[in-house]
Amino acid sequence: MNLLPLVLALLTVYLVWGSTYLAIRVAVLGMPPFLMAGLRFLVASLILIGIGALLRQPWPSRKEIAWASLVGLFLLLGGNGLVVWAEQFIPSSLAALLIASMPLWSLAFEAAMPKGDRPGLLGSMGIALGFLGVITLFWPTLASGDAHSLWAQAMVIAGTMIWALGTMIARRVPLPRSGLLNSGFTMFSAGLAFLLVSLAFGEPTKVRWAEIPMDTWIALAYLIVFGSCVGFSAFAWLNRNAPANLTATYAYVNPVIAVILGFLILAEPVTAWTVAGSALIILSVGLVIRGGKLKTPPPASPAHPGHSRLA
Questions:
Q1: Distance separating alpha carbons of residues 222 and 229, to the nearest angstrom
Q2: For residue 280, which of 102, 133, 191, 232 is within the disulfide window of CB 3.0 to 4.6 Å?
Q3: What φ, ψ does residue 293 adopt, rounded to 5°?
Q4: How far apart are CA 196 and CA 184, in angstroms?
Q5: CB of 131 within 8 A of CB of 106?
Q6: What are the residue ranges spanned by the domains of the chain?
Q7: What is the DSSP letter of 248?
Q8: DSSP 208
C-alpha cells in the first residue's frame, strides 16, 4: 500500500475529528442537538453527492445505496447522535476521551466474526489498558454520584458500541465505488433520520432562529465542511483500505487534541484524573498498533475495485 495517502488520511482524521468535539459542543449550546446534526449531515451529503455527480463518479446501484444508508444509520444516527446529545451535559474533552473505548468494541466485534481479525498479546494488553483509561475517566463522576452526568457518559459509551458495529458492517457489505458518493449517501440517510427525530422531539418549534448566536453557525459550518465532507470521507477510505486496528487509533489520538482545544478555547477543566486517563489511553495506542494483526481488509465485493479510491 502507498504510504502517502494512508498518512494523509490518518492525519486528516486525527486533526479534523479531534477538533469536531469542540465544534459540536459550541453548536449544541445554541441549537437543539438533533436538529443541528440533521442540518449538518443533510447539507454535507448534498454537497458530496453534487460533487460526485459533477465529476461523473460511478453512480451506485440501489443495493449499494441501501447498504450505505444502513451504515449511515449505525455510524451517524446511532453513534454520533448519542455523542451529540451527551455534549449538552458534559465537556467536549470528556466526550472525546470516552470515545477511546471504541477500539475495544470494534476489535471485539471483529474477533467474534468468522475469520475476523484477532489481536495478539500486545494488542490485547493495549485494549485492556485503554479500557482502564476509560474507567479512570469515569471514576470522578462515579465518586460524586452525579447521575445526570453519568447518564450522559453512558450514552457516549453506547454510541461508541453502535459506531463500532457500523464500522464492522461497512467492511463487509457492497458500498458505492465512489468515495464521494459513498460518504454522501451514508450522510443523506442519517441527515433525514436526524430531522425526523428532531421533529418527534418538537425541536424545530422551540428554535428562535434569529437568536441563534453566530458562533453556533460558524461551528455548524465547520462541522459540515471539515467534520463531514473532509473528515468522514477520509475515514471511509481508511475503513476500506487500512487495517482495522490502525484505523481505530483515531479514537486514541482525537481525545488528546480535543482536551487541548477544550482547555484553550472553552476553559474546560483538566484534572489529575483526566491526565491519568489520557496517559493510559495514549500508552495503549502503541500496544494496539504493535500487537494487532496488520491485515488489510478485502473489498466487500470483488466487482468493485474502485472502493480504494480516496474521496
A1: 10
A2: 133
A3: -85, 115
A4: 18
A5: no
A6: 3-308
A7: T
A8: -
